[in-house]
């Protein structure tokens, strides 16, 4: 017993987190490179229409983030987070391998329409049958793999820091910032180097590089295995939550005791170091009935998890219910992100993309916000957080919900700025009589940097704020699932983006109906998104003020630290 604490201290910490950063950077390098450029592969190599190409990409991205739920459930129920990362990375590796083989051998894909002579255009057919099956198999193996990694990898990294230790609590907050930093570095290399390879050397080489990056990601995460603090799966969190619903319904006619200390709880330490007891909260009192013992003495005579649950299990359910409005209130920001990604790329094709004699490829334009994030993240972690920590006494500088709220405000500002930039771009087209011209307008593409920079800052606050919030607030038995739920905001943002455009087009009479941005009213659309973002922020304020932070009661001498963290 005397040697165990020393062994535990040698595990985890920043040294173990380095391998997590490496895997995230490499995995995101491949994922983001394809996220910004796959539409050209679908259109040019699979002969999909522009509409189907865009829809296929949006569905792929949305599904990838949604499949994080699968990874989260497996990690919390069956496997450690490390094993989950390796398993899903192997799936992603297989997916990229399939895409590489299809891009390499022309027999496995349709003849590209651009390679056909005008007299052979009857042979121009979109990928169907076996060709489509190979494409979608590879594509959605990548989606499944990256989804599982997004659920388990942030939680694996965060597990390396003990939030009960004041020093490690501060390091935990920094971990999420540097996790985003590694994600950003990977994305920068992906949208520049890998996109350049796809444009100049071919898609087969692009997929080969993606395959190799995932292979190296697996190697790096395995290299740190001896250093990790690994979680012990506690069984399915979904089963535990369903048990609370069933037990509460069965006990619906029982009165809740005035002395809530009589509610059922198990105080013996279980499940190793991850054991925790959650303090009862006064919200959703109906579910407290799941912890009512039916005997007169209060003993748990009605054995069975479907009839009697612990207070901790009930609070675990309440936590998930309280989290749902928070995640719903952040979906619209990711809808705006999806619009910014698609329409800003289209705007860039009408502008001067020369930079010192080098022509910036359209899919590489997202490097602008990434470069801003590259600069802002270290400033936030090394300057803002220490200053805020001195004022508030909170290890994270500001509370998680405050950080998310700042990001939502900045996203509304970004949409407003995007409207003004688009107005200026259209005025240049009118001034130079180039409304219907296909030539680049005499305005630099870096005007788009204004809206991108602000949205990059918004992403820095909200994305990592959500990850940190869901990890911190989730119970010990559902950390990966909590992380996965935070990614669902991005998933639904992508899924709703197409609906938003179609609805606005119908209601407005065709703001975005033309194939010519110089005649569309994209600026009005951006301003509408800004106004809706303000309304969404009001909804978020209501949800955030209603939220009750969890309180852990593991050990008496830990209670103060837990209250401070809340």
UniProtKB/TrEMBL annotation:
It is a multi-pass membrane protein. The chain crosses the membrane at residues 28-45, 57-75, 81-99, 175-199, 205-228, 319-340, 360-380, 401-421, 441-472, 484-504, 524-547. GO terms for molecular function: transmembrane transporter activity. It is found in: Membrane. Keywords: Membrane, Transmembrane, Transmembrane helix. Belongs to the major facilitator superfamily. Proton-dependent oligopeptide transporter (POT/PTR) (TC 2.A.17) family. This is Protein NRT1/ PTR FAMILY 4.6 isoform A. It comes from Glycine soja.
């Amino acid at each position: 017993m005397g040697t165990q604490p020393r062994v535990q201290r040698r595990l985890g910490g920043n040294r173990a987190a380095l391998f997590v950063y490496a895997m995230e950077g490499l995995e995101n390098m491949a994922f983001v490179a394809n996220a910004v450029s796959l539409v050209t592969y679908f259109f040019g190599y699979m002969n999909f229409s522009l509409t189907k190409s865009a829809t296929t990409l949006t569905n792929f991205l949305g599904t990838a983030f949604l499949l994080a739920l699968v990874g989260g459930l497996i990690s919390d129920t069956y496997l450690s987070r490390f094993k989950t990362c390796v398993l899903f990375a192997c799936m992603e590796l297989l997916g990229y391998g399939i895409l590489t083989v299809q891009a390499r051998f022309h027999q496995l894909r349709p003849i590209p329409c651009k390679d056909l002579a005008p007299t052979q255009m009857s042979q121009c057919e979109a990928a169907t049958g076996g060709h489509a099956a190979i494409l979608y198999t590879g594509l959605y193996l990548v989606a499944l793999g990256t989804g599982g990694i997004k659920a388990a990898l942030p939680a694996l990294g965060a597990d390396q820091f003990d939030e009960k230790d004041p020093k490690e609590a501060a390091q935990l907050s920094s971990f999420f910032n540097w996790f985003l930093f590694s994600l950003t570095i990977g994305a920068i290399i992906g949208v520049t180097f890998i996109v350049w390879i796809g444009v100049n050397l071919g898609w087969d080489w692009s997929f080969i590089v993606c395959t190799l990056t995932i292979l190296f990601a697996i190697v790096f995460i395995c290299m740190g295995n001896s250093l990790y603090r690994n979680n012990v799966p506690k069984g399915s969190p979904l089963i535990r939550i369903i048990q609370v619903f069933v037990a509460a319904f069965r006990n619906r006619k029982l009165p809740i005791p005035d002395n809530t200390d009589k509610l059922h709880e198990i105080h013996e330490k279980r499940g190793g170091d991850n054991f925790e007891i959650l303090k009862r909260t006064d919200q959703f009192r109906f579910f407290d009935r799941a912890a009512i013992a039916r005997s007169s003495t209060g003993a748990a005579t009605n054995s069975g998890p479907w009839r009697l649950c612990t207070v901790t299990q009930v609070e675990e359910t309440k936590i998930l219910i309280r989290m749902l409005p928070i995640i719903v209130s952040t979906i619209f920001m990711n809808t705006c992100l999806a619009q910014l990604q698609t329409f800003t790329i289209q705007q860039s094709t009408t502008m001067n993309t020369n930079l010192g004699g080098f022509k910036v490829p359209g899919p590489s334009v997202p490097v602008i916000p990434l470069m801003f994030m590259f600069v802002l993240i270290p400033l936030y972690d090394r300057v803002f957080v220490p200053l805020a920590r001195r004022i508030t006494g909170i290890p994270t500088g500001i509370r998680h919900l405050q950080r998310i709220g700042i990001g939502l405000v900045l996203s509304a500002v970004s949409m407003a700025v995007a409207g003004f930039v688009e107005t200026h771009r259209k005025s240049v087209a009118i001034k130079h009589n180039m409304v219907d011209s296909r030539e680049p307008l005499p305005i630099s593409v870096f005007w788009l940097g204004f809206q991108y920079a602000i949205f990059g800052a918004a992403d820095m606050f909200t994305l990592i704020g959500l990850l940190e919030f869901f990890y911190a607030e989730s119970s010990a038995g559902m950390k990966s699932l909590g992380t996965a739920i935070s990614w669902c905001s991005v998933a639904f943002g992508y899924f709703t983006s197409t609906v938003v455009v179609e609805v606005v087009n119908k209601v407005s009479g065709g703001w975005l109906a033309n194939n010519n941005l110089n005649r569309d009213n994209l600026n009005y659309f951006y301003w509408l998104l800004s106004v809706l973002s303000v309304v969404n922020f009001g909804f978020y304020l209501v949800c955030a003020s209603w939220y009750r932070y969890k309180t852990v009661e593991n050990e008496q001498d830990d209670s103060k630290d837990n209250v401070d963290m809340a």
